[in-house]
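In response to a reviewer's request, we include the raw inputs and outputs for one of the modeled complexes. The two entities were modeled together in a single run.
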Amino acid sequence: MNAIFAIVFFASAVLFLFTNPNGFLAAMLSGGEKAATLSLSLLAVYCVWLGFFKVMEQSGLSGKLAGGVYPLAKRLFRSNDREGVYLASCNLSANFLGLPGAPTPLGVKAVKRFTDAGNHYAADMLFVLNATSLQLLPTTVIALRLAAGSASAADIFLPTLISTLFCTLLGGILVSLTRSRK
Amino acid sequence: MKYVALVIPLLFLALFAYALFKKVKLYDCFTAGIKEAAPLVLSLFPYLAAILILSELFEQSGLSGYLTAFLAPAFRALGIPPEISKLVLLKPFSGSGSTALLSEILSAYGADSYIARCACVAYGSSETVFYILAVYFAGIGKRRIRPVLISLFAGFASVVLGCFLCRFL
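The model returned the following structure tokens for the whole complex.
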């Protein structure tokens, strides 16, 4: 990450020097502004979903669900940490259903747990599965197509599902193949 | 499509009813959950800010534009229409940016055109990788490059597949 940061930073800064020196600080400030607004909306999302998940935890529902998915998800993440595996599988199901904002707090907690336990494989796997996003219904896309006057907005469903499924599988397989070189 | 909207309210209703049945103190419990929200956001903030500043520099400096122009011929060879190459490159960096770009493409070429459908698949098949990187791996060392490369590669491969599928699906 440090290398990427340095390379992109220097390349863009040099470009700014030649093309538009005034734009440099403006661009950085607008990045900061985006971070501030994004954090606020993340905070709003976390309030709702962390409250929701706490209720789920205390009602004993998450324990039951965890028992159900644990045997399968344990293999996927190669981890024996019940709590972490449970958080990760909740994160994946929330992604799949496309619940806006719900996957993030779960994923963040799960990655933290996996990393603290030294299980980088599980953290990598969860990250890749999130970044390749398996989503059942591309709700945003369908809404945008409707707004643009599409005759059959939902017909994008099948090609999107196939390619996102392919993307997720490929990512997962690559993670498990490259694991040994650690 | 109408039934999809019912999922979330029903989910909340079912859970809260179940919790009441289990004699959970709803208010106390819900607030206890929210208590974790602010520390979580605070711990993410520095990484989020650094990555967003960087991606803003990347885009506004014109670097992303040069990269798009440079890569367009290669994209064409793989069956990706050049009109959507900017979207393909932007998608890993900026969620809101690519949403805006997608709706531009939809109105420019018509929502049911081949180009627009390719754009939709490219948009829907992967996530904003660097945003997820910023949030999920916040504060976790520098060695986490491999999963990012894997995600980017898988995302790109799925765009190629998606553009191919759009020809006949």
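As requested, we also summarize the result in words. Residues 1-49 of chain A form one domain. The two ends of chain A are 18 Å apart (CA to CA).
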